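Give me the fold.
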Amino acid sequence: MYKVLLVDDEILIRERISKKIPWEELGFELAGICENGREAIAYIEREPVSLILTDICMPFVDGLELAKYVYENAKNTKVVIITGYEEFEYAKKALEYHVFSYILKPVTSAELMENLIEIHKILEDERNNQQVRTRYEDSYQLLENQFLLQLAQGKVPEEAIGEKLREFKINFRGDSYCAAIFCPREPVSRMELEHMTEFTRTKYPEYVLAFQGNDGTMITYIKRSRSDDQEINMVRLCQMMVQDISSKLGIEVFCLMGSAVMNLNGLNLSYEKALRMKEYLYLEKESHVYEWDQYKKCRYQPDSGFEKNDREKRLVLAVQSNLKEEIRREVSLIRCECSEKWLSRAKVVIFCQSLILAVMNSLERLNMVDDELFLKGQELLSGLYSCSYIYEMEEKLLDFFDSAADIMNRNRSSYGEERASMALNYISEHYSECNLSLQEVCSKLAISVSYFSSAFKNYTGMTFVEALTKARMEAAKELLKNTTMKTYEIAERCGYSDSNYFSSIFKKTVGNTPREYAKSVTRQKGKDDKEDKV
């Protein structure tokens, strides 16, 4: 149905025309009725119509002024003037504004219907022709897009490139070229991608050929000539496009630039290099231009990887000690290192999974993994691959490690006692080692020094050094009491490499030097023996 607007200041004429004409049978819909040209202009600005039937003489805006407005602003709308004026000037103006027909009153229903039938046929022909043109333009654009994509894929023979460019009326000759892929940060609709492509081609016709890829991206070929403005190089062009697409269209994009090539036949090599960088977009957060040379330098560093064991230990200690800031710092450092070294998604996911398992295993050994944390860990292990960007991985890891740290904190008392007890056992077994230290014990127990020191003091009432000294002194007293070993031998047996230092500590702790203590023990033992004989 084609929409019709009836415009006349006489109510009787409006009613007669609206009621006498079988609009639907003729393929029309009487969409609106207006009393003057001003109302009609306001109407078609809100709702376009295919046909306007109007009188000439009306208040405010007459029919000829309305016809002029339609000619200038709505060229696809047909205008039929129905008037009682035969003046030549009126007819001349009507022709000037491309009025479809000029009908004199009084007009019969049959005459008006005859005009409507003719207009309907013309409207149908125009629509069919437009559909044909649209289909042709769509097909032409599709074929051009296919050619440009095949050029990127290396599927166009070198000798056929020039012929294809002429066929599609593409003038794209320069001294150097490169391919660049524009990847929207978030998925966009097909219409948005088409708009972005058309915007880019229109904005930079001298330098850029833009077309749609098969994966929701826009691919561009960029050319440079010696005669071009030297301040606008290929990188600068890509930066300008990223900024324009963001500011004008509201679409945040990453731009991946392949290497420069000297002929159109080499664009497939440039495109291939740009495509290889796409895998690493998950590392980024901001819209930037990324060049192949920059990627190549970072990607092929021989030491690309993690200090896996050290990172696992530090993270496990931070979780066990409920050190939230330390957890955040460690996870942030991991993310930064991934970006700096351009590590593949697979490598990063595997490493993150190892961190999750290390934390879960440490809690499992302490019997602290509840059902909720277990399920959360399992979901995270399988869900890391679905994260679009490394920042999403970071957030999920932090959430999991925070939950694990909270569980540790709730069980801190029993955990601290267990660690302190284990430390005492370790001291009793290793006190004879001269290099035994707080750091060594904490490393063996997989616990941070600060948390261990606090937990150990609460449980034993002593510091680590005090407990170690006590164990060594008790052992020394037993040796002085039951053996004839010399002082330096006892010092070594009890973990002291310097016998003088041992003697000093012994006197400070026991109140006597080792020799005095041995003599007093011998005298006491002699007294005890006499008493036993008596």
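The first strand starts at residue 2 and ends at 7.
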